[in-house]
Amino acid sequence: MKKLAAALLTSVIALTAFSAQAGEIAVIVKTVNSTFWQNVQKGADAAMKAGGGSNTMTFQGPAAESAIADQVNMVENAVNRKVSGIVLAPSDPDALVPAVKKAWEARIPVIIVDSLLAKGSEQYYQSFLATDNKKAGELAAKALIDKVGKEGKIAVMSYVAGAGSEIGRVGGFTDYIKANSKLTIVGPFYSQSQMATALNQTTDVLAANSDLKGIFGANEPTAIGMGRALKQSGKAGKVVAIGFDGNQDLQEFVKDGTLTAIAVQGSFQMGELGVKTVLQSINKEKVEKFVDTGVVVVTKDNIDKPEAKNVLY
């Protein structure tokens, strides 16, 4: 009888140990309707195949980046179903803090990617993986100045006001322009990450500013809308345009000269490293508090070279 009890106890311990290792990794991004975030998913899938063990992964996001309440609900639902870990790209630096705090209280490790949460919330997540958006904005500004010179008028087409990545990226861009040129900035205009909105806004800006020398589109859907507006208005190649991110549409704009350059983030790396880091946190391994996932300025000259191909999608 004692042998049977001991055997049963050993089985229970083994089962408990297995259950502790197996669980759900919830990857929650800003929207599923963007090739940028779909490329993040590819990276996350690759990390799960490489080292996910018996864990499973779910991938979700709202229909639009501006649907912040929907994203908050997704995080809260993940906490309620007791996932093993969360990889989150917060659409709003403040609105997501209470949900991430709930995860922390439930002892669920959270890895933040792409956009930072509000100051004071650092204890609630294990690591932040992102492009250094300030540096990325500066690179885009430098690329623009190199082509338009240091005097004249330029426009900034942004996306969601207050998003962590937007603050760093557009802030880095405008600060660099102000510090290194006498260029006048029109905007920023906020597309809410809607391509059609960016197209209409850019069309209006081009019509109202016939002397515009340059323009910056600060994320994927905004840059696509901007590029289409330049083509439709006959200004493609006449106004220096710098885009951000690197999907097929934006690559074609670089190749045909609509865009002078695109600053491309390591979106695949964001997903891959995000999942790897959350798995390390689940296993109680030490992780870095910040990881820079990098950015590459892609032009017609380097678009077919390895450094560009590694980040384009």
Automatic annotation (TrEMBL):
GO terms for cellular component: cell envelope. Gene3D superfamilies: 3.40.50.2300. SUPFAM superfamilies: Periplasmic binding protein-like I (SSF53822). It is found in: Cell envelope. It holds the Pfam family Peripla_BP_4. Residues 1-22 form the signal peptide. Keywords: Signal. Its main location: other. Residues 25-285 form the Periplasmic binding protein domain. It comes from the Bacteria. GO terms for molecular function: carbohydrate binding. Belongs to the bacterial solute-binding protein 2 family. This is ABC transporter substrate-binding protein. It comes from Neorhizobium galegae (Rhizobium galegae). The lineage of its organism: Bacteria, Pseudomonadati, Pseudomonadota, Alphaproteobacteria, Hyphomicrobiales.
